[in-house]
Amino acid sequence: MATEPHNRISRSPWRVAARRFAANRVAVAALLVIVLLSLVALFAPLLAPYDPTAIENVLKTRYLPPSWSHPFGTDEFGRDLLSRALYGARVSLSVGVLAMLVAVSVGTAYGAVSGYAGGWLDTVMMRALDAFTAFPKLFLILLLAGVYQADIGVLILIMGLTSWTDTARLVRGEILSLKHRDFVEAARAIGLPAHLIIVRHLVPNALSPVLVSATLMVGGLIGVEAMLSFLGIGVRPPAPTWGNMIQAGQDALFIAWWIALFPGLLLAITVLSFNLVSDGLRDALDPKALTRRYV
Amino acid sequence: MAWYIVKRLLQTVPLLVGIATILFFVMHLAPGDPVEMYLRKQHRTLVTGKAPPSQLEQAIRHKYGLDRPLPVQYGMWLGNLARGDLGESISNRRPVTRLIAETLPYTLQLTVLALILGAILGITMGILSAVKQHSLLDRAVTVSSVTLYCVPEFWLAVMFILVFAINLGWFPLSQTRSLDYGLLPTTGKIADRLWHLVLPVSVLALSSAAGTARYMRNQLAGVLREEFVTAARARGLPESRVVLRHALRNAAMPIVTIYGLQLPFLVGGAAVVETIFAWPGMGAMAVAAVGDRDYPVIMATSMMAALLVVTGNLLADVLYAVVDPRVSLHGNRTP
Questions:
Q1: CA–CA gap between residue A48 and residue A55 (Å, rounded)
Q2: Closest Cα in chain B, distance from residue A58 (Å)
Q3: What is the pLDDT of residue B333?
Q4: pLDDT of residue B49
Q5: Residue B52 pLDDT grade (very low, low, confident, very high; cuts 50, 70, 90)
Q6: How far apart are CA A250 and CA A231, in angstroms?
Q7: Apex A273 CA angle, A268 and A278, nearest 5
Q8: Which residue from B15, B30, B276 is facing A148, i.e. has the nearest CB?
Q9: C-alpha count within 13 angstroms, C-beta hemisphere, residue A266
Q10: Which pTM was predicted?
């Protein structure tokens, strides 16, 4: 894989992949959406036209339909929903990305050890993984988040620690196919200890499929966090999240359709963007992908 | 074949014991105490304003064995579980087996219907899309399935209620039957039940179909490029026969696995959809039990969910063996 450039013309695989990704208009557009959302999340206090939790003259400002002064309308306490949605992006993106990092770290470590060790350890670790996968994940997250009355940190841990199995399988598979290659044999021949072979030689070469699945995972985790908040088990009000905004919207569905609509649209667009970027990355990183498959 | 099934069944026993063990300790190490929750709840209804007597708390603890050491509790629970005794709900003092027996049929109604409809819709769309690749239909199917795949189920459910129940008034908001259900004739009763099933089943079925359609299209499109398909065409077979008999059989196998993998999501999704539609299923009961720290109910519903998933995977494996002649029934799969 990562060979030294022989001359100026040869390009690194990552450069080739970046070029292929840039040629995929849908993926690039989705990436732009994600960048935009991240900026919005980062600068939410500057961008939000109102204080997302301020409650003023409720009777005058509650349940206002979308208008120029309140593009997303207002909720039952007269809070500006656009401002709340902007702050909600912070929760969604940070929980999604951080939980993904937890999952990918655990999964990579688990898969690398299992794949490199082989033998009975591999068998035991894979059986344990099967048991873990047999459990309905969404159900498990729901129960854990509820029973542990999770604050945002614990929530990230719970979501991360229940989502690592796919990464583990992926990394194990990659390691199995890599570990008898010449460059690994060479590393072993010069007496490099196993943990260094794994960390320096095997894992870096197994990263590209992990990147694809990690991007996909962020989208999925954002959806899970929203679901938990929706059920009142995730991040608690008054902190605005897309999930608890949709929950509030469900209660007011008869009088204020806009409350549930806009945060849900944002949520769907975000998850979709992560999916499309993941597709784009897969097509760009996979040298065997000859045709563009989606959209 | 029978031997293969027996072997797979035996393999699930340690799997279930493992799941039960993990579940027990994870739940019992969590902060929050069911007795405390129960007393607080009772208290609120009684409005006594006094702290509950500690003897009462001790008596309840003793009755449910919550004053014993954790390993003893675990042994008791596992023993009872093996005998099919799931204990008694702490929040409403009814046997959990009864609660499960009452709620499980409602969950199965939703999930089984959604699974079947989702499969029919998803597979049909996937086939049409793959056969007419790059056509307008293909694009429409691809775009809508990718989008649907990304729309969270709970929001889809809320939007369906908004559009089809509130604005159009075509379907009921929630519940499993109308208020005048008892007065209806038999055919009316069936129609009433089905009418209430439409929205929750559609939400689950559409989410499941989106993934299937996407997967089916890619699988079949790949298979259609293979040489044996060209050979079949060259022999002058009609295209429908080439697709349905030759290509589909080879594209169907991953779909079987996908269904095995989809089941956990369906069970989880059902919990949310049940909660939204006030559907008296096991998932909604579990969500409510989480709020009450009702350990026996939480544990029992989790075990049932795991059991459903394990059974689903088992069925998928057996089906796999039926569809794929390469699976050796006595050994492992050959890749």
A1: 15
A2: 25
A3: 43
A4: 52
A5: low
A6: 11
A7: 130
A8: B30
A9: 29
A10: 0.83
pLDDT at position B324 is 66
For chain A, what is the mean pLDDT? 82
- Out of 1.10.3720.10, 1.10.300.10, 3.40.50.2300, 1.20.1260.10, the CATH code matching B108-323 is 1.10.3720.10
CA–CA separation, B307 and B311 (whole Å)? 6
As to burial, measured by CB atoms within 10 angstroms (0-12 exposed, 13-18 middle, 19+ buried), residue A198 is buried
Q: Are A233 and A244 in contact (CB under 8 A)?
A: no
Q: Domain of residue A257: give its range.
A: 28-42+78-87+96-294
Of A219, A231, A267, the CB nearest to B272: A231
Listed ranges A24-33, A69-78, B42-51; the one with the highest mean pLDDT: A24-33
Determine whether the interchain pair B309/A130 forms a contact, defined as Cβ–Cβ distance below 8 Å.
Answer: no
**In terms of Cα–Cα distance, which of A238, A240, A130, A144 is closest to B317?**
A130
A136 contacts in chain B (CB < 8 Å): 263-265, 267-268, 305-306, 308-309
Minimal-distance CA residue of chain A relative to B269? A138
Q: Please give, rounded to a whole number of angstroms, the shortest distance from the CA of A82 to a CA of chain B.
A: 18
Kindly report, residue by residue over A274-284, the tens digit of the pLDDT: 999 988 888 88
Distance from CA of B273 to the nearest CA of A (A): 11
- Chain A residue with minimum CA distance to B30: A148
Model confidence over A48-98: pLDDT tens digits?
A: 777 777 777 766 767 767 777 777 777 777 677 788 888 888 888 999 999
Find chain B residues with C-beta within 8 A of A128's C-beta: 18
Query: Burial, B152: exposed, middle or buried (Cβ in 10 Å; 0-12, 13-18, 19+)?
Result: buried
What confidence score (pLDDT) does residue B197 get? Answer: 85
Determine, yes or no, domain membership for A141: yes
- Asked whether residue A37 is domain-assigned, the answer is yes
Please state the domain extents for chain B.
2-82, 108-323
CATH code, A205: 1.10.3720.10
Please count the structural domains in chain A. 1
CA distances from A39 to A34, A35, A36 (A): 9, 6, 5
pLDDT of residue A35: 93
Helix/strand/coil for A74: strand
Asked if B67 and B55 touch (Cβ cutoff 8 Å), the reply is no
Contact A266, A258 (CB under 8 A): no
- Look at residue A34 in the predicted model and tell me its pLDDT: 93
Residue A234: inside a domain, yes or no?
Answer: yes
Q: Is residue A114 part of a domain?
A: yes
- A222-280 confidence digits (pLDDT tens): 998 998 888 888 777 778 888 888 888 788 777 778 888 888 999 999 999 999 998 88
Whether the Cβ atoms of residue B88 and residue B96 lie closer than 8 Å to each other:
yes
